[in-house]
């Protein structure tokens, strides 16, 4: 029952602190209340993370409480200390901006995510995968490409954005082109490395079954490569979003998340900027999460997905 | 003899791939720039030209769509001959970006190590913080970069600090993840042995966990330093920063100076590779007491 009492205490403390904040008269009361609330939240999280039964059923609750505590602390500190809005708006203000500007934010989302990111992501990963399969047949090319791939990973590729804008114009194709180049090499290297991930024993077994190259690829080597390929896909999901937004700083039509951020910063509408960032974060997490889900479905046999036995 | 042939078999493929890339580049710069030139010639009433003339013109344009490598080389050589403290010299811009990157990287390493230690040793932190460490990376921080720079600029903080903050936020993540993985890499047998020796927790940490984590740490440091460089460059984009490689990219993009953009790109690429190579050297030096460093990560 203790977790329930702690949860109640946390919630009550949070509500009381926010009420005091709105009343604006009891500054002295606010800080002990807020600190006590965060303390109760910490105890609750400790309690939940040490409880194996709760862990199995409410594994999501601990990070959720942590996130809410963070938002709470942000709200209390920004409003309690009267931090200027330009510096850091309170979460409640950002939420209000999200609702007020929903139509504009949705148009930006369409432009940046549905056009640039998805096109660039599919093209970049797809072409890298196909080229990796072709290169896989030639050890000579592999020895040439692997060190090159490692070199390229050290290069700030986002810098090609202005060149792509010159080649492909202001609209989404130039952003997609930046994403293609950014995502190509991580995927190429991971796929090549993944295709090497089988034991000689396993490959010998396929040979003794008289399996052809294609059959060995489909039945053994691609499944074995899947964890590494998915790693690259997850890494690229964040890279793609970042690439699209940064590329928009170098010239866009008058819509898009990167465009919104750079113009609203100049106009000091920081709450709209934060709302855009909130949207981008949710999209980024959802993108990453979707790929993780697909990975679980496809590589359920991998040790990292086995249930931990206590 | 054997060593020579071994080195050849390793370097020949790379040389071959690079040669192919260079040829593709040269051909592409002709193919992309030619239409502009022929267009101009026809308007000036020039109807016949040889291929050699066309190639020559394509490789010597003022603002080519794709400059040839030798044009970039000439531009770099011209830039490096300027005085070191003048904005004409790319080394000056490299220093501006590099110093922001280095301070951000230092801070990021510190933050990354502290977070990893907390996550490994405090269960509550592991449960509550780890998902958010991962989530924090889905925030396109590079997108916040202009805002951080503008906001800190309003506070009167300009120059190096905002860029360093951006670089720090970007590079703590791989370090935290890699170090958490590394500190957990000793297998139960080794941990049991430490218990048999009745080692204290701190002895177990310094004699087993920390050394075991080193290969993982250096792998993530290589990733982190290249991300920190991207952060420093992007941090220079807003407010039309006067100095730095990012500022050169943006200025070149405004005025259509393609050769300038490419020069800045080439220098940042070289800087990125040099930094990763430097980490690799330190790794060799630091891990020389161990057997050959095993590759961190990968399937067990």
TrEMBL record, chain A:
Give me the segments passing through the membrane: 29-46, 58-74, 86-106, 118-135, 147-169, 176-195, 240-261, 273-294
Quote the subcellular location field of this record.
Cell membrane
Report keywords, A-Z. Answer: Cell membrane, Membrane, Transmembrane, Transmembrane helix, Transport
Q: Which GO terms describe its biological process?
A: transmembrane transport
Question: Topology relative to the membrane, per the entry?
Answer: Multi-pass membrane protein
Question: Can you supply one Gene Ontology CC term for this chain's record?
Answer: plasma membrane
Q: Does the keyword Membrane apply?
A: yes
One Pfam annotation reads BPD_transp_1
> What residues does the ABC transmembrane type-1 domain cover?
106-295
Note the PANTHER family from the entry: ABC TRANSPORTER PERMEASE PROTEIN MJ0413-RELATED (PTHR30151:SF0), ALKANE SULFONATE ABC TRANSPORTER-RELATED, MEMBRANE SUBUNIT (PTHR30151)
Write out the similarity annotation: Belongs to the binding-protein-dependent transport system permease family.
Q: What is this protein called?
A: ABC transporter permease
Instruction: Give the originating organism.
Output: Elstera cyanobacteriorum
What high-level taxonomic lineage is stated for the organism?
Bacteria, Pseudomonadati, Pseudomonadota, Alphaproteobacteria, Rhodospirillales
UniProtKB/TrEMBL annotation, chain B:
Q: InterPro entries, from UniProt?
A: MetI-like (IPR000515), MetI-like_sf (IPR035906)
Q: Where in the cell is it found?
A: Cell membrane
Coiled-coil region(s) at which residues? none
Q: How would you describe this protein's topology in the membrane?
A: Multi-pass membrane protein
Q: Which Gene Ontology terms describe the biological processes this protein takes part in?
A: transmembrane transport
| Keywords, ordered alphabetically | Cell membrane, Membrane, Transmembrane, Transmembrane helix, Transport
Cellular component (GO) terms are: plasma membrane
Record PANTHER family: ABC TRANSPORTER PERMEASE PROTEIN HI_0355-RELATED, ALKANE SULFONATE ABC TRANSPORTER-RELATED, MEMBRANE SUBUNIT
Describe the family membership recorded for this protein in Swiss-Prot or TrEMBL.
Belongs to the binding-protein-dependent transport system permease family.
Q: What is this protein called?
A: ABC transporter permease
Q: Which organism is it from?
A: Elstera cyanobacteriorum
């Amino acid at each position: 029952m203790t977790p329930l009492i702690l949860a109640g205490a946390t919630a009550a403390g949070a509500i009381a602190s926010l009420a005091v904040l709105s009343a604006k008269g009891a500054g002295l009361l606010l800080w002990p209340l807020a600190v006590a609330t965060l303390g109760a939240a910490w105890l609750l999280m400790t309690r939940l993370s040490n409880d194996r039964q709760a862990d199995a059923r409410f594994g999501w609750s601990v990070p959720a409480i942590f996130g809410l505590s963070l938002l709470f602390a942000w709200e209390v500190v920004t409003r309690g200390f009267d931090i200027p809005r330009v510096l850091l708006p309170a979460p409640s203000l950002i939420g209000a901006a999200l609702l007020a500007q929903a139509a504009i934010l949705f148009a930006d989302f369409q432009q940046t995510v549905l056009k640039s990111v998805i096109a660039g992501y599919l093209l970049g990963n797809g072409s890298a995968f196909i080229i990796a399969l072709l290169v896989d047949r030639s050890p000579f090319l592999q020895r040439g490409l692997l060190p090159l791939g490692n070199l390229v990973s050290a290069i700030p590729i986002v810098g090609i954005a202005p060149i792509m804008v010159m080649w492909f114009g202001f609209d989404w194709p130039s952003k997609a082109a930046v994403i293609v180049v950014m995502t190509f090499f991580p995927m190429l290297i991971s796929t090549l490395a993944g295709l090497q991930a089988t034991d000689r024993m396993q490959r010998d077994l396929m040979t003794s079954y008289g399996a052809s190259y294609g059959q060995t690829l489909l039945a053994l080597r691609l499944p074995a490569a899947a964890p590494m390929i998915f790693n690259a896909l997850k890494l690229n999901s964040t890279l793609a979003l970042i690439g699209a937004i940064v590329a928009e700083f170098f010239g866009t039509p008058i819509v898009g998340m990167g465009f919104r951020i750079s113009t609203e910063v100049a106009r000091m509408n920081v709450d709209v900027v934060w709302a855009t960032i909130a949207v981008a974060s949710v999209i980024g997490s959802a993108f990453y999460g979707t790929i993780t889900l697909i990975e679980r479905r496809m590589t359920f046999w991998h040790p990292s997905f086995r249930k931990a036995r206590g | 003899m054997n060593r020579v042939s071994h080195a050849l078999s390793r370097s020949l493929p790379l040389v071959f791939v690079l040669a192919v890339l260079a040829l593709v580049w040269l051909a592409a710069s002709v193919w992309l720039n030619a239409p502009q030139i022929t267009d101009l010639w026809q308007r000036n009433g020039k109807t016949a030209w040889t291929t050699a003339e066309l190639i020559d013109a394509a490789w010597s344009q003022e603002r080519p769509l794709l400059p040839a490598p030798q044009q970039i080389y000439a531009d770099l050589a011209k830039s490096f001959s300027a005085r070191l403290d003048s904005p004409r010299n790319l080394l000056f811009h490299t220093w501006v970006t590099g110093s922001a990157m280095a301070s951000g990287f230092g801070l990021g390493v510190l933050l990354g190590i502290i977070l990893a230690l907390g996550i490994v040793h405090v269960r509550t932190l592991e449960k509550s913080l780890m998902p958010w460490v991962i989530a924090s990376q889905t925030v396109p921080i590079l997108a916040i970069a202009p805002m951080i720079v503008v906001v800190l600029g309003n506070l009167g903080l300009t120059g190096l600090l905002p860029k360093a903050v951006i670089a720090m936020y970007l590079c703590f993540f791989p370090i935290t993840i890699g170090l958490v993985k590394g500190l957990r890499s000793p297998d139960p047998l080794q941990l049991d042995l430490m218990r048999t020796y009745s080692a204290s927790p701190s002895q177990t940490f310094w004699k087993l966990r920390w050394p075991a984590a080193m290969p993982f740490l250096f792998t993530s440091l290589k990733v982190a330093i290249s991300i920190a460089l991207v952060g420093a460059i992007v941090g220079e984009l807003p407010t039309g920063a006067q100095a730095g490689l990012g500022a050169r990219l943006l200025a070149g993009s405004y005025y259509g100076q393609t050769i300038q953009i490419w020069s800045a790109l080439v220098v940042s690429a070289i800087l990125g590779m040099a930094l990763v190579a430097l980490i690799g050297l330190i790794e060799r030096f630091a891990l020389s007491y161990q057997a050959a460093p095993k590759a961190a990560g990968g399937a067990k």
